[in-house]
Amino acid sequence: MNDATDNLRNVRNRIAQAAREAGRPTDSVSLVAVSKTFEATDIRPVLEAGQRIFGENRVQEAQGKWPELRREFPDIELHLIGPLQSNKAKEAVALFDVIETVDREKIAKALADEMRKQERQLPVYVQVNTGLEEQKAGVDPRAAVDFVGRCRHVHGLTVAGLMCIPPFEENPGPHFALLEKLAGEAGVGKLSMGMSGDYETAIAFGATSVRIGSAIFGAR
Fold first, then answer.
1. Are strands 209-212 and 98-102 parallel, antiparallel or unpaired?
2. Distance, CA of 34 to CA of 152 (rounded, Å)
3. Cβ(98)–Cβ(159) below 8 Å
4. Sign of the torsion angle spanned by Cα atoms 34, 37, 42, 48
5. Separation of alpha carbons 33 and 52, rounded Å
């Protein structure tokens, strides 16, 4: 057993414990193992240990390693968790199973068009910029509920939930609480929030999936 599989077991145990402490079923939180920058040789032991949901930041990088891994492990669920450019929508729809970073009209339309062309309806998440950070992707929280409605009713997307990345230097709790509130107002059931440094806090605020990379694979 290598470090990554040991780390995976530890993270799973901590997720289950955090869920119990929040009064939630231990299976109510999904683990998205963030494999960006890691090679197929690094990912394979984690797959062999039973992990099936993975997150990647870049379409081109994911194209280089996941088709081969999928041939070995066909039940993989691959999430795009990084910013998407509209000119990559075709490749993203073909490769990924969930798109977590829909944050503007142009992307919503590009994805909807590609899903129709490919006859592949993927669930999406709307990314919310809870900290209103200029350098960070995500829709303004004040516009999030309306944008979810437009994604559904104008573009015909299946919006499964909301996603956020709180400002690094701030207490993440208020950001997670805001995302939970917005999800209720928008009528979506899933919350993708929490990373290696704060996922237990995210679970306390209702995260249904946590995106964890370095705590499993090590430092990049």
1. unpaired
2. 27
3. no
4. positive
5. 8
For the chain, give the mean pLDDT.
96
Neighbours of 6 (CB within 10 A): 12
CA–chain centroid gap for 67, Å, is 19
**Cβ atoms < 10 Å from Cβ of 71:** 8
Q: What is the dihedral of CA 100, 149, 25, 178, to 10 degrees?
A: 80
**Side chain identity, residue 45:** P
* Token output for 213: 């990379």
d(CA 57, CA 211): 11
| The dihedral sign for the CA sequence 19, 140, 35, 123 | positive
Q: How confident is the model over 114-159, as pLDDT tens digits?
A: 999 999 999 999 999 999 999 999 999 999 999 999 999 999 999 9
In this predicted model, what pLDDT tens digit does every residue of 169-187 receive, in sequence order? 999 999 999 999 999 999 9
DSSP state for residue 207 in the 8-state scheme? -
Tokens of 85: 């450019």
Give the number of other CB atoms < 10 A from CB of residue 150: 16
What is the spatial distance between Cα 82 and Cα 133, in angstroms, rounded to a whole number?
Answer: 16
Give bridge partners of residue 191 from the DSSP assignment.
162
